[in-house]
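Our example pasted here:


***
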Amino acid sequence: MDTDIVSLCEQFPAAPRYLSQVYLILRENEPVVGARISERLHVTPSSVTQTLKRLEQHGLLSREPSRGYTLTATGERLAKHYISRHYLLERLLVDELGVAWDIADDEAERLQMVLSTTLEHHIAKRLGHPDTCPHGNPFPGSEREAYLLHAPTLTDSAAGDRVRVIRVTEEGEAVDGLLRFCYEHRLMLGSVLAIGTRNSTVLHARFGDDDIDIPLDFARHMRVEPATRSRAAEPDAAS
């Protein structure tokens, strides 16, 4: 895999980001269209169009009328490896070095291209082989993948509910200010919220001894479970 990654990145440095996003969009059962990738990666639509065409020429993507772009077998293999490597580095930066969520995401992207498989295995062992990134997004093929992907959003909660935060979606990570908001308000995985009222822009909640107003644009990207659910039943429940 190292040879594949080095060779591809030398020819096409943008490939890891694009393949990863295509995989993550497909994993959410959404069609892969240029506008969605442009929004997530903060690049122009014309750049997205050119890059997707190049990936198709490299045999990493194909186009289907009903779903837009999809990954070839090689493209999917590389995408899964990029994502797992990125998540692992995020966990290293957050869990071991205390780096803020939003900063860790950017730094992991820079580091993943120079990480060897040997060091990757050592990091995974050191961290206890985590199955999610710091924001709760599951490694491809992990045991809890389906559970985390299909958990309800925070906006599905009703006044009076007590819910536990278990994931901030990949799409949400691209929303300006969301990861910083979570970090500054200490809304980490495992945080329990008592849901209050809401208006057209914010959801009011009680978090510990504090009242917190969560913008609805953020809340719709946060996945939760009932606080009464046993966390012991879910492996690697991050705190």
DSSP finds eleven helices and seven strands in the chain. Strands lie at 61-64, 68-71, 162-168, 192-198, 202-207, 210-215, 222-226. Residues 151-226 form a domain with the SH3 type barrels. fold (CATH 2.30.30.90). The radius of gyration is 18 Å.
